[in-house]
Amino acid sequence: MITIEKTLDLPDTYPLERIGSLDKLLFFDIETTGFSALTSRLYLIGCTYFSCGQWQLIQWFADSEKAEPELLHRFFQFLKGFQTVIHFNGDGFDIPYLTKRCQALSLPYDFSQVESFDIYKKIRPFRRILGLDSLKQKAIEGFLGIRREDRFSGGQLIEVYQDYLSTHEDDLFRLLVLHNEDDLKGMPGILPVLNYPDFFLQDFSAFSSELQKQDGPGSSPGSLILSCQGEFTIPVPFHVSDSCFPGLSLSGEKTRLTAAIPLYSGTLRHFFADYKDYYYLIYEDTAIHKSVGEYVDRSARRQATASTCYTKREGCFLPQFEPLFTPELKKEKKDRISYVEYDCGLLADLSCANRYIHHLISHFQ
After folding, report:
1. In Å, how far from its chain's centre is CA 66?
2. Which InterPro entries is this protein grouped with (predicted)?
3. Cα separation of 198 and 169, whole Å?
4. Alpha carbon distance 358, 203 (integer Å)
5. Nearest to 360 by CA among 337, 330, 343, 344
6. What pLDDT was estimated at residue 218?
7. Order of strands, edge to edge, in the sheet holding 310-320?
8. How many C-beta atoms lie closer than 10 Å to residue 279's C-beta?
């Protein structure tokens, strides 16, 4: 087994104290001869960590087929000095792979003593909002404006490693370890994407709203423009709209999140759940409780059903895509979208405004 250690000059791209104590964070990446831990082997583990005021790199390289157990032993012994491992999709591949290789080699190691921080899983809920075609590291780099060319694919590197085992040529060795080093150096470049989970999950500190009137004929009251100010700064602006609900959109730039929400003006219905306790009044087009309805002429009433057990309200209404504020109002009983009566005081309370803006964020996820 060969161990490589060196000092790195890495850019400061994200406040890592949001994740944990800097000296207890360990970035890692692995190289294997295949995807299955049952039919392939581990040949390289690389780590970066902060120590003595500088970023350090350490790599363990299996220079023979028999070196894999020692490589795993060295890595897990080193891991004892850290509290959190940071990786990209390591929960999906790297960690299960290493755990299974330890089991296959009867080594008593796992990741139970550390926290796992998976960049991939942190950003996955916001893929639609950010318009990411995929969640591959290349796609995230492209979103952030990073241009980095991989000289070799994973499959090509497997062939390079097989050639190295036969020849032990220094050029092949350098190629393998430099590829892993480049991947680790590239990880700080995508860390700014973590500002998006921070941004979306925060409680916003200030809100402002205005009504944007709709031009043209009709009774539509237009849209509510809700602007929120937060603590966290996003590196790249975004804009997302809902094709199923025209006019609804969410956009963000720097520390500000803005939502455009079409309002509805007209008549909506509030449906009662216990419809068996109500009569439907045919001529008034409304439902009343049987304790009162029993005094209404029988010819003017009938047993309410789930779809006729309602009262009606006229006004201006704010949409909600899951039950949030009550009483919720609908056009029809079966509708998924409901509404709440809107006035300027509805979102004046900071907690209510945060509830609604996070409701919209969840809708777009």
Report:
1. 41
2. RNaseH-like_sf (IPR012337), RNaseH_sf (IPR036397), YprB_RNase_H-like_dom (IPR038720)
3. 46
4. 9
5. 337
6. 53
7. 264-271, 310-320, 338-341
8. 23
Average pLDDT, the chain: 94
pLDDT of res. 147: 81
Class of domain 2-193: alpha beta
In this predicted model, what pLDDT tens digit does every residue of 95-104 receive, in sequence order? 999 999 999 9
| 88, 63 Cβ separation under 8 angstroms | no
For the ranges 76-90, 126-140, 216-230, the one whose mean pLDDT is highest: 76-90
Hey, where are the domains in the chain?
2-193, 202-272+309-365
SS (H, E, C) the chain: CEEEEEEECCCCCCCHHHCCCHHHEEEEEEEECCCCCCCCCEEEEEEEEEECCEEEEEEEECCCHHHHHHHHHHHHHHHCCCCEEEECCCCCCHHHHHHHHHHHCCCCCCCCCCEEEEHHHHHHHHHHHHCCCCCCHHHHHHHCCCCCCCCCCHHHHHHHHHHHHHHCCHHHHHHHHHHHHHHHHHHHHHHHHHHHHHHHHCCCCEEEEEEECCCCCCCCCCEEEEEEEEEEEEEEEEEEECCCCCCCEEEEEEEEEEEEEECEEEEEEEECCCHHHEEEECCCCEEEEHHHHCCCCHHHEEECCCCCCEEEEEEEEEEECCCCCCCCEECCCCCCCEEEECCCCCCCCHHHHHHHHHHHHHHHC
Which tens digit of pLDDT belongs to each residue from 323-338?
999 999 999 999 999 9
CB 296 within 8 A of CB 287: no
**Which is it for the CA torsion 325, 330, 336, 341, positive or negative?**
negative
pLDDT-based confidence at residue 213 (cuts at 50, 70, 90)? confident
> Long-range pairs for 32-36 at CB < 8 Å and ≥24 separation?
32/97, 33/158, 33/161, 33/162, 34/158, 35/93
